[in-house]
Amino acid sequence: MGGVVRALLRRAVQAVLVTVLVSGLCFTLVRLLPGDQALRVAEGRYGYDRVTTASADAVRAELGLDRPAAEQFMAWVARLAQGDLGVSLVTGDRVVEEVAYQLGHTLLLSLAALSLALLAGPALGLFAGLRPGGVLDQAGMVGAAALRALPVFALGIGLMLLFGVTLGWLPVAGFHATENLVLPALALGLGLAAASARVARDATVAATSAPFFGFALLRGLTRAQAVRQHVPRNAAVPVLAYLGVNLALLVEGVVVVESLFGWPGIGHALSHAIAARDVPMLQGTALSLGLIFVALNAFTDLAILAADPRRRG
Amino acid sequence: MTPSLTIEDLRVSAGGVALVRGVSIRVAPGVPLTIVGETGSGKTLVAEAAMGTLAPELVASGRVVLGDAASEAGDRAARRHLWGRGIAMLPQEPWLALDPTMRVLPQVAQGHRFVRGLSMAEATARAREDLAALGLSGAATRFPHQLSGGMAQRVAVAAARAGGAPLLLADEPTKGLDSDLRSAVVALLRGALLAGGSLLCITHDVAVARALGGEVMVMLDGEVVEHGPAETVLTAPSHAYTRRLLAAEPEAWANDAIPGAGEELLSATSLAAERGGRRLFEALDLAVGAGEWVAVTGPSGCGKTTLGNVLLGLLRPAAGQVRRRAGLARTRYQKLYQDPVATFAPRLDLRTALAEAAALHGVPWSQLAAMLARLRVPDALLDRRPDQVSGGELQRIAIARALLADPVFLFADEPTSRLDPITQQETMAALREVSRERGLAVLLVTHDQAMARKVAGRQIALRAA
Amino acid sequence: MRRPPLLLLALTLWPGLTLAQQPLRVVAPFHVESMEPSRDGFNFTRMRVAETLVGADDGGLPVPQLASGWTLSDDRLTWRMTLRAGATFHDGSPVTAEAVAASLRRARAQPGPLANAPLTSITADGPGVVELRTSAPFTPLLAFLAESSSQILAPGSWDETGAVRRLIATGPYRLVGFQPPFRFEVERFEAWNGGPAPAIARAVYESVARGETRALMAESGRADLVFTLDPAGTDRLRRSPRVEVRVMPIPRTQTLKLNAGLPQFSDLRTRQAVSLAIDRDGIARGILRSPAAAATQLFPPTLAEWHVAGLAPLRRDPAAARRLLAEAGWTSGPDGILTREGRPFRFTLRTFSTRPELPVVAAAIQESLREVGIDMQVAVVVSSEIPAGHRDGTLEAALMARNFSLVPDPIGTLLADFGPRGGDWGAMGWASPELIEILATLGRSTEAAERAALRGRASTILQAELPVIPVVWYDHRVAISRRLANVSVDPLELSYRIEAMRWAE
Amino acid sequence: MRGLRRIAARGHSPARLMGGTLVGLVVLMAILGPLLVEGSPTRQDLSAVLDPPSADALLGRDHLGRSVLVRLVHAARLSVSLGAATVVAAAVPGILLGLLAAWAGGWTDRVLSGLGDAVLALPGLLLVLLVVALAPGAFWPLFLGLSLAMWVEWFRVTRAASGALLASPAVEAARLLGFGPWHVLRRHVLPEMAPLFGTLAAFGFAGAVLAVGALGFIGIGLRPPTAEWGLMMVELLPHYDEAPLAMLAPALCLFALVLGLQLLAGRDPR
Fold first, then answer.
1. Mean pLDDT, all residues of chain C
2. pLDDT tens series, chain A, 313 aa
3. Which residues in chain D touch residue A32, judged by CB atoms under 8 angstroms apart?
4. For tag attachment on chain A, is the N or C end more exposed, with fewer CB atoms within 10 Å?
5. What are the ABC transporter domain coordinates in residue numbering (chain B) (predicted)?
6. Dihedral sign from CA coordinates of C216, C217, C219, C225
C-alpha cells in the first residue's frame, strides 16, 4: 500500500502549500488594497448608508486594525496553528462557525455536481464509445463539445430561464429544499459531465481496442461479457485522472454558481469577503476552498489507486 | 485421427494484390505444425484466417475446417462461436493481453465461467487448478504487472485454454522474450500438446520450430516454399530460401571473430553501476583495444545497456573509473541502438538529418554517399522520414551516421534484435566489414549466446542482478 | 402547463389547506448576517419580529407602536413614553419599563442614530413608563426611536458581552429559524396585543442578491412578496397573471456628490454646468423607466414638507453648460476635452453596485459629460470607499443613493450630510453657515410655520449651491402575489406589514 | 515544401476544420469589424434604449441605447487581443522555464517545480480573484493574474514533454555525434512540442476568454463602459426578456470562440 501513503503524503504537502499560500497571499493583497479597512467593516456591519467616520473609528479600535500589519499577521498565524480562524470582521462571528455552516452547502453542491460528472457523464461516454462513429457517439460528442464551451454562468442562466421560467419546474433560487439543489448542481456539473463523457468515450474506445479486450473475445467471451468484465474498470482510470486535473474547474465554478443561485456556500462568502475586505473571512473561505480542492484531489488519487493496481506498487 | 484444423487453398488479397496464395495446412492432434517465415511472408494472415479475425478490407477465399465444422475462409463470423471452445489463440506479448486492472485468477476463471458456463465458485476452483498445473499457484492473486514475462506467458496459456479448445494457435509466442525464456515457452506449448490438444505455431525463429519438432512449413511472399517433418526440413532443406534462413541463424554463421586487439581505447576499473538504487554489477574490470569486438551477454535487466552507457560516459558509474584514450574527441565514441527509428528526429527527412551531421563533422556529402552505397542503402530512401524505412535499412543508415564522426569505438546495443534473421545477418555483416576496415572497436550487447560466440573475440557475461 | 398537473389538481381540491400550511415567502436583496439590531435589525422590524417604541405612518409622522403614547415636558427636554399595556416578550415575560430602558441603553451604546442624539438618560419610571432626557430640545427624537436599531429586545437576548444571542422581541411574529445570511423563518406570536391577530401563521424571509432572480421568483410563484425590483424585471412582471406590481415613490434620491474643494468644482458655475449636462429625463425614462423620476430638486414630492413646489427645476441644457464652463475659464482641448491652465477637465467618479442601477446611471452621466467636454472615469468600488475617500480627501466625485427616511424625519439625515465639514454621504468641501443655522433651529423648534419656512429656505439653498447634484428620485417596486390580499406597502420601508395580510380566497 | 507536407501529414479532422473556421471568423471580426462597422462603442442614446434591430443598429441597442453590433465587434477585438496577450505572457516564461528545468535538472528543476506546485495548489480562478481584488475593473491586474495562473500549465507541459524528449535515444545520439543544445532544441525538442503548444495555446486562449467573462459576472472584471462580451452579457442580463438578441449575441460570440478553440485544440493535453 505504498502508493496510498505516497499519494496522501503528496496531498498533505499540497495542503500545507495551500495554507501557506492563502494565508500569506490574502493578507498581503488585502494590505495592499487601497482604502480604509475599518470603514469597509463598518459598512458591512451597519449598511452602506449608515457608515460614518465615527463608527469606523470604533471598529478600528475594537479590532486592533491600527496595529502594524506584521503583528496582525503573526497573531493570525498563531491562532491558525491552534485551529482558530479568528472572528469575521463583518459579522463578529467566529469564522470557523460560519465556514462550517457554509461548508455543508458547498460540499452538498459540489458532491451533487461531482456525482453527475461521475455517473451520467461516463455512462453516456461508455455507450458512445462502444459504437464509435455511431449516431449516439456523434450527437453526444457534439453536445459535449458545446457544453464544455459554454461559460458556467451562461449555462446557469440558460437553465434558470428554461427550467425556472419557461417550464416552471424548478425554483430559481433558495436552498432549503432538495429541488433547490437541482439547477445549481446541473450548472456546476454539466460541463464536467460533458468533459468526462468525452474522456470516458475515448477511454472506452481505447479499452475495446486494447489487446486484452481482443484476447477476451478470442477466449470465447461474448462482446457483452467482455465489455462488462473489462471496460468499466479500465475506462475509469482515465476518467478519474481527468477529473482529478479538472477539479479546479469545479472549485472555480462553485464561486460563480453560488453567486448566481444565491447558494449559501463558501464561494458566495468568498466573493463577499473580498468586497468587504474581511481578512479572516477571506482567509477562512479561500483556505476552505483550497482544502476542499486538496481533499477532492486526495479522494481522486485514492479512487485511481483502487481502480488501477499498477499505481499501487 | 481426424485433424483439428484443415485449411484448403487459402488465398488472401488486399486491393487485388495477393498476400497469401494457395496455402493448405492440416493440423493433427499431438503433432505440432510450425509456420516459419519473415515479416511480410503472410504467416500471420494464415493464423488470422483460421480464427476469422482477418481485417475487414482483406478478401479471403478457401475453406477452413475446424473440428467437424467447415466454413468458407472469407466468412469471418462462421468461426466466431468456436473461439475458446474449438480454437484458442495465444496472444503475442501476453503481458499486454491480460487486463492490467484484474487479478490473474478471475481472468483465467472467465473461460470456465463464460465459455463452459460453470458457476462462479466452480470456475474459480478450476482456474486455481489450471494455475497450479502450470506452477502458478502463488500468482493467483497477483496483477499482470506483477508477473514476469514467463509467468504472463503461462497465465495467458491457462486463460486461453480455459474454455476447453482442443486447438491452440500461437502467433510469435517468443516475441520480445529472452533466449532463455524461449525454451520455457516451447516447453509450455509442448505441455499443451501432451494434454491431447493440437498446436499451430507461427514464428520467425527457426530455433522454436526446431525445438517444437512435428511438422514445419516455410513461407515466403505469401506462398509455402517448403513443408515437411521438422527434422527433414531443418536439416536437409530443399528450397534455397530455407537454406538461407538456416544459414542466417547465428549458430550457422562463419566463426570469424576478430581477435586482434590494437592499442587500448578504453578501460574500466572496478566499475559498478546501479539502477533505481539496485546494484547491477560491481568490481568489473574491462579494457577494449582498437578493432576488437567484445560481446556483453546476460539475461534482461542485468545491466548490459547500462554498462555500455557508463563506458560512453552517458551514465555516471556508482563506483570505479572509466578511462578513454587521451587526445580523442568524445564524438569518436559512438553508439548504435536497438530501435533505430527512435534515434532520428521523427519529422525530419533522413537526407537533411544526415547532411547536418556530415556538415558538423566536415564530411563531404560525396564521401557519405559512397558509404551509404557500400552499406547498400538506396539513395531514394533518404527522402523518407525514419518511420517510413524498414528496420534493417534504417540501422544501416544509423551505422553510416555514426561513422561520420570517424569513431574508434562503437557501443552496439542489440542492434539487430528486432530484425528478421536474414536481415540480421546482413546488417551484422556490414558492421563487421566496416569495423575490420577501420579498426573500429565494437562492444556488442546481445542476448543471443550463439551470436556472441561467433562474432566476438571476448565475452563478458553479466549475471542477473 | 407550468406545473406538474397532479400538483395543480391538489391545489384546486384543497386550496385552503395548502395555502394555510404554506408560509408567506418574502424576498428582498438584504442579507441577514446577524441578530444585532444595529447591523441587520431592519430585517426583523420589517418582518414584524421586533417592534420599536414608535412607528411612522406613510407620511413619516410618528404613531404608537410598543409605546401607546408619549408626552414632552414644557422645557422640551424630557420625553415620557407610556408602554402598551399587557405587552409581552416572545418568551412570555412581561414588557416592563426597566427592560425597555435597558434595551434602549444598549442600543445607544452601539453605532447608530440613537448614539448621535443628545440623550442624557434613559430610565424607567414605574412599570409602564420610560423616561428619556435630552441635554437640549431635540424634536426628531421620536423619529430616532422609530429607527430599527432602537428596536426593543428582552434583557435575555444578549449575553454578558452585550452580543445578541437570541432575538426575544415583542412583535406579532417571533423568530423560529435563522440561517444567516440568507434566510430566517417567523411564526405568529399568539400573545401579541398590538392589534388584530395576524391572519398569516408563518412567513419566511429570503435574501436574494440578483434582481433578475428576485423577479423570476415572483414570476414563477416561488415568492409572494418581492421587494426592490429592477426596472426591467418590473415591466416583465406586469404581464404576469400571478403577480401585481406596485411602484411608488419613496424618499430616496440618487445624488452626484462633487468634491467642491477641488479647483474644478469649487466654482459654482462648473457644478451648475455638470448639473445642466446630465440627461435626467433620459435616465429616468431609459434606465429607471419612470419618467416622473427625473429629479427637479433634492427632495422628492413624497417628502411633502421639504419638497418646494415653486423651486426652479433642474434641467438639461448642454449649450448652457458649455457656456458656463467657458465663463469659468475652460477651453476646448485637442481631443475634445476641456482644459484650463494646461490641465484637462478629468476626474474619477466612485460608485458601487449594491444598487445595480448606479453603475448604469454613472455610464449615462459619463457619456453626457463627455459631450460637454468633461472626461469622467467611473470606478465601481465598494460603497465604503466613498466615506473613506471623503475623509482622506481623495474622493473627487461619487454617485450614490441617499435615503431621507432612514430616520423617518429627514432632519436626521440632513444634520449628518450638511454639517460644517460636510458629510460622508453629503457635501464635500462645501459648507453654508446659513444652512447649518437653519438645521440647528429646526432641531429645536416646534412651531409649525417657522419650521415650514426654514425647510423651504434649506431646500432653496441646496438647489442654488448644488453641493450634491440630484439626479433621480427613486421608486419603490414591489411584486405582490395575487394569492395575497389586504396588502399595503410602506413607502418608508419601515415594515413589510405582513401582520395585516391574509391569503386571498 | 516541407512545411506544407507537415501540415498535410497532421491532417485536419472535420472538427479541427470547423474549429478553425469559427476561430477564424471571430478573429476576422476582431480585426475588420471595427473598420467596417462605424460608430463608437460607448455612444449612447437614452431615447433608444433596448430598441430592436434597425438599419443603423443591425443588432439593436442595449440598455443605454448603444449599438450592440458596434460593441460586439469592439469586444471581439478586446477578447481576442486579451486572450492572445495572456497566452503569450503565460507561454514565454512557461516554455523557457520548462526547458530550463528539463535541461538543468537538479536543484533548478526542484525549485521551479516547487514554485509550479505552489501555484497549482490553488484553483486558478481563486488566484486570479485574489490578484484582481487589488484593483477591480482594471486591465493590468486581470492580465497579470491570468498570466500568473496560466504559466504553470505551460511550464509543466514543457518540462514533462521536453524532459522525455531530452532523454530520448534521438537526443542521446545527437549529443554523442557532437550536436549542441541549439540543434537539439531546433531539431528534436521544438518540432515535437509544436502541436502540444498549439493545443495549450488554444486551451489557454479559451480559458482566458472564459475567465474574463466569469470575473465580469461576479463583478470584478473589466470596468464599464468597456465593450467586453462577458460584461455585455451581465449588463444585459436584467433585460433578457425585452432584448434577448442583445444578450444572446455576446453569448454566442463567446461560445463560438471558445468552442472553436476547443475543437481546434483537440484533446486536453493534461
1. 87
2. 577 888 888 888 888 888 888 877 777 766 666 556 666 666 655 655 556 667 777 767 766 666 777 777 777 677 777 777 766 666 666 778 888 888 888 989 998 998 888 888 888 888 888 888 778 888 887 788 888 888 888 888 888 878 877 777 777 666 666 778 888 999 999 988 888 888 888 889 888 888 899 899 988 888 999 999 999 888 888 888 888 878 888 888 888 888 878 788 888 888 777 766 677 787 888 888 888 888 888 888 888 888 888 777 5
3. 134
4. N
5. 5-246, 266-465
6. negative
Distance in Å, alpha carbon of D66 to nearest chain C alpha carbon: 11
For residues A37 and A69, is the Cβ–Cβ distance under 8 A?
no
Does one domain contain both C295 and C430? yes
Contact B349 D2 (CB under 8 A): yes
What fold is seen in the domain B5-248?
Rossmann fold (3.40.50)
Q: Which domain holds residue C382?
A: 249-475
Asked whether residue A173 is domain-assigned, the answer is yes
Q: What pTM does this model have?
A: 0.77
Are A173 and C384 in contact (CB < 8 Å)?
Answer: no
Task: Supply the range of the domain harboring residue D211.
Answer: 2-265
Q: Give the ranges where D48-138 is alpha helix by DSSP (H).
A: 68-104, 106-121, 124-132
Touching chains, A (3+ CB pairs < 8 A):
B, C, D
Contacts of C352 in chain A (CB under 8 A): 48
| Mean pLDDT value of segment B116-123 | 90
A21 belongs to a structural domain: no
Question: Could you tell me the residue range of the domain that residue A264 belongs to?
Answer: 96-311
Other C-beta atoms within 10 Å of B138: how many? 10
C360 and D235: CB-CB below 8 Å?
Answer: yes
Check whether residue C302 and residue C397 sit in a common domain. yes
C-beta atoms surrounding C74 within 10 Å? 6
Contact B89 A220 (CB under 8 A): no
Contact A109, A256 (CB under 8 A): no
Q: Residue B342: name the closest of B402, B388, B387 by CA.
A: B387
CATH code, B252-461: 3.40.50.300
Question: DSSP per residue over B234-278, as a string?
Answer: HHS--SHHHHHHHHTSGGGS---------SEEEEEEEEEEEETTE
- Could you tell me which chain A residue has the CA closest to the CA of D262? A149
ipTM rounded to 2 decimals: 0.74
Chain D residues at the C interface, defined by Cβ less than 8 Å, are: 42-44, 46-47, 49, 63-65, 136-137, 219, 223-225, 235, 237-242
Residue entry with cell 565494437: B442
The DSSP H or E segment spanning C195 is none
Phi, psi of D87, deg, nearest 5: -60, -45
User: What is the interface size between A and B, counted as CB pairs within 8 Å?
Assistant: 80
From the centroid of its chain, how far is CA D73? 17
> Does residue C166 sit within a domain?
no
Number of neighbours of residue C452 by Cβ within 10 angstroms:
12
Helix (H, G, I), strand (E, B) or coil at A195: helix
Interface contact B362, partner D, CB < 8 A = no
Q: Give chain B positions within 8 Å (CB) of A224.
A: none
pLDDT in tens, C318-338: 999 999 999 999 998 878 889
B447 at interface of D, judged by CB pairs closer than 8 A: no
pLDDT range class, residue B134, cuts 50, 70, 90: confident
Cross-chain residue pair D217–A245, CB shorter than 8 Å = no
Taking only the tens place, the pLDDT of each residue in A189-246 is 998 888 888 888 888 988 888 889 989 998 888 899 999 999 988 888 888 888 887 8
Overall number of domains in chain A = 1
CB contact under 8 A, A150 and D233: no
Interface test with B, best of D2, D165, D168, D177 (most B CBs within 10 A): D177
Query: What distance in Å separates residue D47's CA from the closest CA in chain C?
Result: 6
| CATH number of residue A254's parent domain | 1.10.3720.10
